[in-house]
Design a protein that fits this description.
Radius of gyration: 22 Å
Helix content: 40-55%
Strand order of the largest sheet: 1-2
Structural class: mainly alpha
Number of strands: 2
Distance between the termini: 32 Å
Shape: elongated
Strand content: under 5%
């Protein structure tokens, strides 16, 4: 996302809404406090030229914890939860920009956690895809992919995902089975964006590795690399050995149908790595690792 301070000629009188947005862009907490104190009616200050984002949306986009904390304490969300034109709350933006800001919002406004934007994605789904520069979006072909609106500063996707699940006002089983408009669960997002720690946290919390999206693909089918697939398969296998999910879940997690071999599949033009189940699954683990090492060697 391109962020810029509102460009206003110095010779004109700058309006309060513009001054407030400028102060947030400058990360000037004292100035923000002064403006809000003198103009409490401008606290939310939605900018309809910027997708209807409010002051708190802007603070979330820019990962400004102190300003976000002040806006929350000043009553920004006392009457209702802010929502921009894309159906996003400040939490939706914060999970992709700052773990501290996201944790603040999750603890203060837990009802926002299962809230879905217009694409059907909730905060857990979005948090499961953070910290990746060039993700593989499970809902669009590579040519149509776009990077996250801001480079994420999230240092621990596992912590964020686990905390969102903890604070959620709905049961974890319901939250983790939720799907976006294309049927993708949070586990689909984590797998497609190569978030191994998020995958681990989601599986530990009870995510179903056999869940299928609108194109009948499971999360494992979107593994971003061979190594990620091996890791994913190991986690599912460990869950099966401990009695969580069992063999049915393990078979479902591999993909769809029967047969064997690694091949490229397509979903609406999207190239995905699909692994078919077979009796040789155990022996193929070494083959997959070897294939990954050969790829890494050829890349060098």
């Amino acid at each position: 996302m391109k962020s810029c301070i509102p460009n206003v000629p110095l010779s004109t009188n700058v309006t309060v809404p513009v001054r407030l947005r400028r102060a947030i862009h400058l990360n000037d907490l004292v100035l923000v406090q002064r403006i809000v104190k003198k103009n409490p009616d401008k606290l939310q200050n939605p900018d309809f030229e910027d997708n209807g984002n409010t002051s708190l949306h802007l603070a979330a986009q820019l990962a400004l914890l102190e300003i976000a904390q002040f806006l929350v304490d000043a009553g920004h969300e006392d009457d209702f939860i802010s929502c921009n034109a894309n159906g996003e709350t400040p939490l939706h933006l914060a999970v992709e920009t700052s773990v501290p800001v996201a944790l603040l919002f999750a603890s203060k406004f837990p009802r926002c956690i299962p809230w879905k934007n217009k694409q059907g994605a909730d905060a857990v789904m979005l948090s499961a895809r953070t910290s990746v520069s060039h993700p593989a979006n499970p809902t669009s072909p590579p040519a149509q992919q776009s990077p996250p609106r801001l480079r994420s500063t999230a240092s621990s996707p596992q912590l964020l995902v686990s905390t969102l699940i903890h604070y959620s006002p709905i049961p974890a089983s319901v939250l983790l089975s939720a799907a976006d408009n294309d049927g993708n669960t949070a586990l689909h997002y984590a797998s497609a964006y190569g978030q191994l720690k998020a995958i681990r946290a989601l599986l530990a919390a009870g995510s179903n590795p056999g869940a299928r999206n609108a194109y009948s693909w499971t999360p494992m089918a979107y593994s971003s690399t061979v190594q990620a697939e091996v890791y994913f398969r190991g986690l599912v296998g460990a869950a099966g050995e401990s009695g969580i999910g069992g063999g049915v879940v393990k078979r479902e997690a591999d993909g769809s149908g029967s047969g064997g071999g690694l091949h490229r599949g397509g979903v609406g033009g999207l190239g995905v790595r699909i692994v078919r189940t077979g009796e040789e699954v155990g022996s193929r683990m070494d083959m997959l690792v070897g294939d990954g090492r050969r790829r890494a060697g050829s890349a060098d």
